Structures are given as structure tokens and as C-alpha cells.
Amino acid sequence: MPLTLNASDPAAIEQAAQRLAAGGLVGMPTETVYGLAADAGNASAVSRIFTAKGRPSDHPLIVHIPPAEAGDWRASVAQLAHSVPDFAVALMAAFWPGPLTLILPRRPEVAAVAAGGQDSVGVRCPAHPVAQSLLKAARAHGVLGVAAPSANRFGRVSPTTAAHVAEEFAELGDEQLLILDGGACPVGIESTIVDCSRGHPVLLRPGMLTPAQIEAACGQPLRERDEAAPRASGTLESHYAPRAKVRLMSGEQIQAALDVLGQDAKHIAVYTRTTQRAARAVVQRRMPADAAACAQELFAVLRELDAIGVKLIWVETPPEGAEWDGVRDRLQRAAA
Ligand code: TXA
Ligand code: MG
């Protein structure tokens, strides 16, 4: 089993920072989801991430950095990225530390393997206090940035608690993975990704920041991604998949299907905002009416329903409105 340490103990943070500096793997809480972290400047450390996740080596990772000293974001990304456009700096100023990843032209100090061979690099300054303490402590040991994908096996649901991470990598020993337990992640779905390497901002992955917020902060229209955009594993059609089959339906469709099955409904869970009449065997979870609350619990709910052993998860389609874009995106991928 991996070693899990309580992140409120400063000695645990220091131990984790030393692991990173020595080329080891650390389960790192962030405000979005838990990351599987390694020194972004150490190619063999980064390749351990790909092996542990079973992730194809051409899928780039996000590099995490501590907050800028004196708020100078341009200086703080300068060692990882070159030719950083003004609109990207405006986005950093508006949303960092926070759930936003920016794709920028990569400097050679970032291991090419961390960037999946791309000439760009994804950079994010997380808002979670444990992530920030770890990134600062690692820097004191010479670690410039920390590469961290979500700490799940390739294609599976992202982890939002330390226990989820331990479950995903149960076969790794305590020498191979140290997990910092920083509690449940407050945002719950992965960061919004904006490509800033093409002269104009392009939305690669929706998250909890809305397009309107991003456009207001950078003063430019946000373009949708096109075919030329680099491959992003979070943008593969089938991703975030639980073992159970997920289907998105309206509340009425779910009720109609439950009515047809009646007492024969078995191995089914429903996750709905509307109240459903269902046989007792049907597992019912109430979807929060608030997008942020739904995002926060979404992956934990999918994992919990998987653990119960249901075969079908019928999810009520989220409401329209940009604040639901991130949740809608993850559910559509879980259902694909
Ligand atoms: O919230 C998050 O972003 C979490 C936490 C741990 O920070 N991380 C995360 O990492 O979701 P991951 O690897 O599961 O998803 C990162 C996404 C992938 O879809 C990857 O392809 C994309 O970011 N990405 C990273 N670097 C990129 C680059 N240089 N160009 C294009 N896409 C990139
Ligand atoms: Mg992921």
C-alpha cells in the first residue's frame, strides 16, 4: 500500500518535498482533484508517472508552480515558458492561484517527457494550501516545477480524496508513493485549460471558470478548440469512465424508464435533481441544484456508485448555463 500522511503535519510536507527532490512520486491534493506529482525537471521521475498511470507517453502533463513572489507572474513562469503573451499574464493575474491551466511555449528546463513531446507546456499555480506548501518546500530542494496529472489510472474517474488515490495505486508500496491527505478537494473537477501558445486564447477543457469570466479577464474572445489543437487526454471522448454504464437523460425520461421496470429495476442508480418514484432496490442520489456543489461531489458519487456495484447510472442532464459546462463535459465523457 502507498504511504498516506496527514498534510496538516509540517514534517509530512517536508518528507513529501524530499521525495520529489529524490525523483519519487507524491499524491498531492489540489483544489480541483488530487495529482500524481513528480519533479518536472527529472525525466526518469516523470516517466514513473506515466508507468504508474498506464498513460500513453504522448499525453502531456501539467506543471504546477508555487505562487509568484510579489505577484510577478510573468517572472514566475519565465523559467518554464518563453514568449508569454500579455493576455496570458492577465489570466494569471485574474485566476492564479486557482483552477486554471495555461498552455505556453515550453523552455528546455521542463523535461520533454513531461510535455509529452510537445513544444508547449501546461502551467498551473494551484490554490490549495497543501499544494502550495509542498511546491514551496520542493523548490527549496531545487525542484522548479512539479508535473502532476490527475492521480487516477488512465481513463478512470479522477480522485478527490486521499483514499481514492490509495485505491487507484493500491499495488504501489510505501516507498513508491507517498500520499498527502489534505481532505476532499473543494472544486472537485479538473482545471479549465486555455491554450495561450497560438496568439489568441483557445478553450481546450471546460472547468469551473466560465468562458465569460475568462474573456472578461483577458479582454479577448475565447475560441473553441479545432483539429489542429494538441491532443489532450482530458479531451478524449471516453474519459472519466466509471465501471458502471452512465446515461444522461431528462428527469421525465428517467421516471418513465423506472416506471417501465417497476419492481424489476435492479443494479440501477439514479442521480437526479428531480424527485423520482422508484423501486427500493434503486439507489437514489440527489444532484445538487448548484453547479459548484455538484462538481465538488461528482467524482466521489460516481466512485461510490461503482463501489456499490450498480451496473447502470442514470444521470439527469445538467441545466443549461455556462456554470454547468464543466460538469456537463465530465458527464458526457463518462457516458461516452
Ligand atoms: O485540475 C487539474 O488540472 C489536475 C490537477 C492535478 O492539477 N490535473 C489534471 O491533469 O487534470 P491531467 O493530466 O489529468 O489533465 C491534463 C490535461 C490533459 O488533457 C493534457 O493533455 C492537457 O492537460 N495538457 C497538458 N499539457 C498540455 C500541452 N502542452 N498542450 C496541450 N494540452 C496539454
Ligand atoms: Mg486526468
UniProtKB/TrEMBL annotation:
GO terms for biological process: regulation of translational fidelity; tRNA processing. The keyword Protease does not apply. It catalyses: L-threonine + hydrogencarbonate + ATP = L-threonylcarbamoyladenylate + diphosphate + H2O. Its EC number is 2.7.7.87. InterPro entries: DHBP_synth_RibB-like_a/b_dom, Sua5-like_dom, Sua5/YwlC_C, Sua5_C, T(6)A37_SUA5, TC-AMP_synthase_SUA5. GO terms for molecular function: ATP binding; double-stranded RNA binding; L-threonylcarbamoyladenylate synthase; tRNA binding. Keywords: ATP-binding, Cytoplasm, Nucleotide-binding, Nucleotidyltransferase, Transferase, tRNA processing. GO terms for cellular component: cytoplasm. L-threonine binds at T32, H64, R124, A148, S191. The keyword Zinc-finger does not apply. Its main location: cytoplasm. It comes from the Bacteria. ATP binds at R55, S150, S158, R205, Y240. Residues 10-209 form the YrdC-like domain. It is found in: Cytoplasm. Belongs to the SUA5 family. Required for the formation of a threonylcarbamoyl group on adenosine at position 37 (t(6)A37) in tRNAs that read codons beginning with adenine. This is Threonylcarbamoyl-AMP synthase. It comes from Hydrogenophaga pseudoflava (Pseudomonas carboxydoflava).
